[in-house]
Amino acid sequence: MDDLPDQLVWDILSRVKKNVDKNSASLTCKRIYKLDNEQRQSMRVGCGLDPANQALTLLCNRFPNLEKVEITYAGWMSKLGKQLDDQGLVILANNCPSLTALTLSYCTFITDLGLRHLASCSKLSALKLNFTPRITGCGILSLVVGCKNLTILHLIRCLNVTSVEWLEYIGKLETLEDLSIKNCRALGEGDLIKLGSSWRKLKRLQFEVDANYRYMKVYDRLAVDRWQKQWIPCESMLELSLVNCIISPGRGLACVLGKCKNLEKLHLDMCVGVRDSDIIGLAKKSSKLRSISVRVPSDFSLPLLMNNPLRLTDESLRALAQNCPMLESVRISFSDGEFPSFSSFTQNGILNLIQMCPIRELALDHVYSFDDIGMEALCSAHYLETLELVRCQEISDEGLQLVGQFPRLCTLRLKNCLGVTDAGLYPLAGTDKLDFLAVEDCPQISEKGVQGAARSVSFRQDLSWMY
């Protein structure tokens, strides 16, 4: 190794992906130790930092070229020593001049003061905060004012982020490409209007409302009305995920759905108010759509939507089939088995989508309308590779036995299906038809019954969900 040039040793070390392996390699000789210290660009630390600030100082001095740092205190207890505090962020700001990405998870000692120190990190482009309860909107504002190159911002369970001035400021910068706001109790759908012209640059948006602690201002009709009058450009949007959101007809997020002409991935989970017209409008604009996941809520009793007709039917699936020729992943889920008759997808609608699009991955959850006839129709699904069935109680052994006739199926997952038994899997034994079979909590399928039905098998049985 002594005869190898530094650049070659660097190249060798760059191929070692796991930090534990890099640590082992660096102990072999002083030269590799020195080169590894110079090359190391990422670091993940947490409960093992003790004392936290002193240990972080040593690490930053050892690795002067760190670009990505993740600090996580998941599972932390007081007996593990004091957590990293605001002084730790001072250490990062002063000792990591190349810092571009920072993740703080369960860092309960970090406050707004610590974020202000990070404002001096001019190269910081990605910040992810997961359950940092002492952080408020003021701290985030001070950071975005200093870090004008921020392209990725994730806020997850930041319960005290109440003010949204930071959203308005970052909207004017027009640098943000990836925004994720999940279960931040004080932030509602109407606050997204503050992004302004930044919608033009946004490529990925994840917005999840904490349904148990919904802030009352999301019902503010004036805020939604103001959003309606604003033009929202979303030409760059590639991925859109909305969870527990209110989709008010012709306003707010409904406007966004109809303007994502380059959208590739859509996830709508328990979004109240989604109508056929929303999905049809999206399908006509988003011909590049590759993946769609929809979980339909069964409770349509919210006062905001009482006077609006709500329809989500096969018309939506028909529009997707006719306008999205690249669609290859579909997940349809009902929140429970009792749905209003006016809001449901039928088996015919699902099969029509599969026949007209190159669907490679299909997942059905609580879709009671899908039965053995549907399984028979899948025998002509020439692109289907992965099938997941959850609580599809109308499927029997007769339908399951048809899996062997699916042209390209290689992965099958069954969960909480009451109507299938070991007999449904017998035809697959020893055929090598499936690469992977997962059976979870299906009361009539035994561990013995799955053996030999695929090259790789996963089996789990917990029937507490039935009682």
TrEMBL record:
It holds the Pfam family LRR_6. This is F-box/LRR-repeat protein 15-like leucin rich repeat domain-containing protein. Coiled coil: none annotated. SMART domains: LRR_CC. One of its GO terms (biological process) is SCF-dependent proteasomal ubiquitin-dependent protein catabolic process. Residues 376-450 form the F-box/LRR-repeat protein 15-like leucin rich repeat domain. It comes from Salix viminalis (Common osier). InterPro entries: FBXL15_LRR (IPR057207), Leu-rich_rpt (IPR001611), Leu-rich_rpt_Cys-con_subtyp (IPR006553), LRR_dom_sf (IPR032675). PANTHER family: F-BOX_LRR-REPEAT PROTEIN 14, PARTNER OF PAIRED, ISOFORM B-RELATED. GO terms for cellular component: SCF ubiquitin ligase complex. It comes from the Eukaryota. CDD domains: F-box_AtTIR1-like (cd22159).
